[in-house]
Specification:
The protein is of the alpha+beta class and about 150 residues long. It has one domain. Helices cover about 35% and strands about 10% of the residues. The protein contains 5 helices and 3 strands, in the order αβββαααα. Strands 1-3-2 form a 3-stranded mixed sheet. α4 runs antiparallel to α5. The two termini are about 30 Å apart.
Length: about 150
């Protein structure tokens, strides 16, 4: 049976590479029990799922991940479809996409879905060699929400 490293570890690696470790620290399973409730909005959980828990995209498209901000859930959550369903590279890209949503949310940016600030933040990752974001950005600019 093939196993992958925990998604939390990938989150930590990407957080350091692209955001200099500025995004919230991901909590381990059950770690939230040891954190004061007033501090929970400053954290995030990261997990894989094997089913599309409410991850419906526009039209016939299905999303491969979801960021659930801390106004809705404490702590905030990033949920990504398992690599077994979408492949390891798509899992990585989806996590990065959702981390951009997290970056904006924790910076106080409240814009719906994939607005101009999201597009700019995603596009900035091309400077780190993430060329795939350019195609995604173009889709968002022309109004196609299926860029994940």
């Amino acid at each position: 049976m093939t196993t992958r490293r925990p998604l939390r570890d990938l989150y930590l690696e990407l957080n350091e590479r692209f955001w200099g470790g500025r995004l919230p620290r991901p909590l381990r399973v059950n770690e939230w029990l040891d954190i004061a409730i007033v501090d929970l909005p400053r954290f995030v959980t990261v997990r894989r799922v094997a089913i599309r828990e409410g991850m419906r995209g526009p039209g016939p498209h299905h999303a491969t991940g979801r960021f659930i901000h801390s106004r809705t859930a404490w702590p905030a959550r990033i949920v990504v479809l398992s690599w077994r369903l979408i492949g390891t590279e798509q899992e990585r890209r989806t996590l990065i996409h959702e981390m951009v949503h997290a970056e904006l949310w924790f910076a106080g940016v409240r814009e719906k879905d994939h607005g101009p600030r999201f597009v700019a933040a995603l596009e900035s990752l091309a400077a780190y060699g993430e060329e795939w974001v350019l195609e995604a950005v173009e889709r968002y600019r022309v109004g196609k929400e299926d860029a994940r």
